[in-house]
Amino acid sequence: MSRSSRKENLFDVLIIGAGFAGIYMLKKCHEMGLRARILEAAPDVGGTWFWNRYPGARCDVESLEYSYSFSDELQREWVWPERYSAQKDIQRYIRHVAEKFSLLDDIQFNTRVVEAHYKEDQRQWHIKCHDGASFIGTFCIMATGCLSSTHMPDIAGIEGFSGSFYHTGQWPESEPDFSGMRVGVIGTGSSAVQLIPIIARQCRHLYVFQRTANFVVPAHNRQLDPDVEAAHKANYPERRRQSRQTPFCIGGHPAPAHYAHEASAEERNLMYEKKWQTGGAISYLYSYKELLVDPEANETAGSFVRQKIRSIVRDPRTAEDLCPNDHYIGTKRLCLGDDYYETYNRDNVTLVNIRTSPIRQVTSNGIVTDDDDYQLDAMILATGFDAMTGSLFAIDIRGRGSAALREKWRYGPLTYLGLMTAGFPNLFFVAGSGSPSVKTNMVCAIEQHVEWISGCIQHMMANRLAEISCSEDAERKWTDHVAEVGNATLYPTAKSWYSGDNIPGKSRVFTPYVGGLDVYRKKCDDVASSGYTGFRFIGSEDRRLREGFFEVSE
Ligand code: N01
After folding, report:
1. What is the pLDDT confidence band of residue 550, given thresholds at 50, 70 and 90?
2. Residue range 254-278: mean pLDDT, rounded
3. Contact at 8 Å (CB) between 325 and 210?
């Protein structure tokens, strides 16, 4: 370890990204007495919550759960104004955490990493940034986020549009004013569902260009009741403990006790109505045990939402266009919205079905479809992200023998526990492919990974180990296991960003581990306590790079 070194650009740990993951990783490095630095492309902390500041941006996990649990003082002192936090409150929170734990001095902002190469002879990562700056670290931690690399669709003529132009994932700080404007929104995923009702209230006319209808259930966001908050905080550590014992790491939603196929149609309707009135995606999908594994059961939950759409949206054709019919509910991210379907009853909102009438081209002043020509003053792309791997592939990452990660993962990510990939020593991924990640409460997933990685680094320090990598065998078995668990559900049946379907040319692989964070945590803990089964270590005093210094067979 290079702990004693004070060379300007030499660190024990280099962390890429200052979102929830990077911030906590840096704090752990401070606790371990390691010299660490975060390199962050944005001018502030927040990661995906920094960039996604479009009107209406809000978390779909409740505030008291979507927050760090590592400090009881922090979780008690912080006051969340709303049931589901707005982007600006989450951003304020992450900033507060960075200040409270004196992390800002070790974050280098406006620094985009473009290259990360492992030098085998030195056992160090050499990092290069867009401005030519370079850094060297013993460990490199990719805290780059799953939804950070925006997807710009390849639509003919799009670069020639002369009006105002935005992407939800790169929203400007200037808070654009749409009053009096004709606005086009392309996309109807979670971001659009939150944005559309707000823009509709501001603009002269809103055209929503929808290719695929999504299921949307109500959020019922509201001010957080101080009594609810006080009761939660009075018992916070115990609530966190209970949350950790659930697959999604979210408390207050007991696992379903019954099967949909055992309930009568009337009982099911009562159940779905209750969930509709309560609000929340997990709550809705937790109506019955088998909703995400059994197509027929799933259909009962999906058809309830379609009935709701038809009862809310007055124009029958618009209502039919809004009814999802190409995927099982919950297999794409179930959108949470307030006033979403109601917005289509406004006189100044038009839904344009670009499945039946595709976009031919964008012109300098609008969008031309097969059937019509829409004049626009502003265009908003809500077209999502090159998820899971996009932010990693944006960096030229090379491991042993200069092997490129982009090449190695050409047919999909290969990881052991989602934490490492063979041939890339001392490189950890936080809450990405091969781990529960986006299929659980992301903050919990991040805390679990950061704590495991920190424990591993401590183990290496205590045992004078300089290098860790995972074996190809462990990686293959784990990747197969992730696929097997996914294939036992309906998730992979949907065309979704979970599987990379939204990015032309990307290999189709459903990469999150959907066995639950509770199960996954135990697997990771068992691996560590059994002497890091499936990982290999090399000692710091062994200058020859021989394998197996601390290898534990499986
Ligand atoms: O992106 P998406 P998002 N022509 O990929 C359409 C998280 N999130 O930013 O389905 C026309 O879901 C595309 O159409 P189709 C959450 O995990 C969370 O909305 O490919 N349309 C789709 O409608 C979420 O799942 C929160 O046919 C094109 C849309 O663009 C994830 O981020 C809030 C197109 C993209 O939807 C991503 O959500 C916001 C094209 N060429 C986001 N290309 C909360 O916590 C794409 N589309 C609440």
Report:
1. very low
2. 96
3. no
Instruction: Report residues whose beta carbon is within 6 angstroms of any ligand 1 atom.
Output: 58-60, 147, 153, 155, 168, 186-192, 194, 211-212, 333, 336, 354, 382-385, 438, 497, 502
- Ligand 1 nearest atom to the CA of residue 192, by list position: 19
Query: What is the distance of C-alpha 262 from the center of its chain?
Result: 34
User: Percentage of the chain with pLDDT > 70?
Assistant: 96
End-to-end CA distance of the chain: 27
Please state at what angle helix 236-244 crosses helix 517-529, rounded to 10 degrees. 90
The residues, ordered by sequence, that sit 6+ positions from 199 with a Cβ below 8 Å of its Cβ are 55, 178, 183, 185, 206, 380
Mean pLDDT of 214-243: 95
Residues 6+ apart with CB under 8 A from 46: 18, 19, 90, 91, 94, 95
**Do 474 and 419 touch, CB atoms closer than 8 A?**
no
Amino acid (one-letter) located at 206: L
Q: Which residue's CA lies nearest to atom 15 of ligand 1?
A: 212
**What value does the mean pLDDT take over residues 15-43?**
98
Which helix (H) or strand (E) segment is 349 a member of? strand 349-353
Residues constituting the chain? 554
Per DSSP, the three-state class of 243 is helix
* Interatomic CA distance for residues 18 and 21, integer angstroms: 7
DSSP state of 420: B
Query: Confidence band (pLDDT; 50, 70, 90) for 553?
Result: very low
Binning the chain into helix, strand and coil, the percentages to the nearest 5 are 35, 20, 45
For residue 60, give the amino acid letter.
D
What string of DSSP letters covers 438-460?
Answer: GGS-HHHHHHHHHHHHHHHHHHH
CA-closest candidate to residue 163, choices 438, 381, 366, 423: 366
**Domains of the chain: which residue ranges?**
10-149+387-550, 158-381
Query: d(Cα 528, Cα 140) in Å, to the nearest integer?
Result: 20
Amino acid residing at 231: A
- Tokens, residue 91: 């951003």
CA dihedral 145→146→147→153, nearest 10 degrees, is 130
For the domain 10-149+387-550, what is the CATH superfamily, name and number? Answer: FAD/NAD(P)-binding domain (3.50.50.60)
Which residue, by CA, sits nearest to atom 36 of ligand 1? 189
Contact 31, 147 (CB under 8 A): no
**208, 201, 203, 186: which is closest to 322 by C-alpha?**
208
Dihedral class, residue 56 (left if φ above 0, else alpha if ψ from -120 to 50, else beta) = left
- For residue 517, the 8-state DSSP code is H
Structure tokens at 92: 């304020």
Tell me if the pTM is above 0.90: yes
Q: Is the dihedral angle over the CA atoms 174, 180, 184, 185 positive or is it negative?
A: positive
Percent of the chain with pLDDT strictly greater than 90: 95
Say how many Å lie between the CA of residue 54 and the centre of ligand 1.
13
Q: What's the CA-to-centroid distance between 182 and ligand 1, angstroms?
A: 22
